[in-house]
Amino acid sequence: MSPFYPLDSWTWRLVLIREQIRYKSRKEIEKLREAGRVAANALRIAARAARPGVSLLELDRIAETYIRQQGATPSFKGYHGFPGTLCTSVNDKVVHGIPTKYQLQEGDILAIDCGAKLDGFHGDTCLTVGVGRISEAARMLIQNAQLAMFVGIEHCRPGLRMGDMATAVQKFAEDRGYSIVREYIGHGLGRDLHEDPQVVFAEQKAGTGFRMEPGMTITIEPILNIGSYKCVVEADGWTVRTKDGSLSAQFEHDIAITQNGPEILSIPDAEYELEDGL
Ligand code: MG
Ligand code: MG
Which ligand is nearest to the CA of 192? Predict the structure, then answer.
């Protein structure tokens, strides 16, 4: 086709958007899997250490030490100036919680997000755990946040579009009485921590958005709140919390879309798995 074929501006926009997605070879997907494994292990080492009286900074040091021992580097540290290896978001904190001297308390819930760069590729994965005994409402929120992520993963299949995935995730969450955070979304993943496309989990129409195609590698990371989806950024410029003070939970996996469906790339080694199958 002639490069001067008169495409309308919307079609050109789609062509340009498409070109920014970097499709991965099988070899590149395996490198992402290795980086994802290191990030997933570090995440669980930190999650196991999350007990009453332990500070967020201690968890951060534990994760960084493990990542560096594996010959990897923390993806988040220094990213746009972020100071930590982990994002540690407690209770009503939504994302990007800076690891501080705050000591965890019985009943807290803690979302830990961990990124590791290995051999030029990034892993980026997140889970939420309870500290000691937690309320039934908190336990249900965590369980449903994990299930919402898996609903999203199930929809990472050739032939579906982002809107199909997002609609399913939003319906799952809202049917159970939770809201999905709008401002913080998933992304492509590869040599860069954040690549195209943007992966949204709410307010999409089924049958719209980018087409899921083999070779795409993206993160599925919906955030569920007990109350409203609205968020505010705290004075530190990073930490995001729910506007209404309600609890928030998040899970994240790295996904390769293949001919046969989704492949999860951020799987820990068996020895690092948490008791409840996380
Ligand atoms: Mg993440
Ligand atoms: Mg991410």
Answer: 2
Is residue 171 assigned to a domain?
yes
Identify whether the C-beta of residue 181 lies closer than 8 Å to the C-beta of residue 223: yes
Q: Please give the torsion angle defined by the CA atoms of residues 109, 54, 243 and 87, in that order, rounded to the nearest 10 degrees.
A: -90
CATH code: domain of residue 195: 3.90.230.10
- Reported as a single tens digit per residue, the pLDDT across 223-249 is 999 999 999 999 999 999 999 999 999
Rounded CA-CA distance 180/133 in Å is: 25
Query: Measured in angstroms, how far is the CA atom of residue 6 from the centroid of ligand 1?
Result: 40
Ligand 2 center to 1 CA (angstroms): 37
Which of 75, 33, 14 shows the shortest CA–CA distance to 262? 33
User: What's the CA-to-centroid distance between 220 and ligand 1, angstroms?
Assistant: 9
Q: Domain total for the chain?
A: 1
* Ligand 1: centre distance to CA 219 (Å): 8
Distance 219 CA to ligand 2 centre (A): 6
pLDDT at position 209 is: 94
Task: Tell me, in angstroms, the distance from the centre of ligand 2 to residue 269's CA.
Answer: 20
Instruction: Report the separation in Å between the CA atom of 221 and the middle of ligand 1, taken as the mean of its atom positions.
Output: 7
Locate all alpha helices (DSSP H) within 124-273, ordered by sequence. Answer: 136-154, 162-175
Taking the C-alpha atoms of residue 170 and residue 121, their distance in angstroms, rounded to an integer, is 30
The closest of 181, 172, 156 to 265, measured between CA atoms, is 156
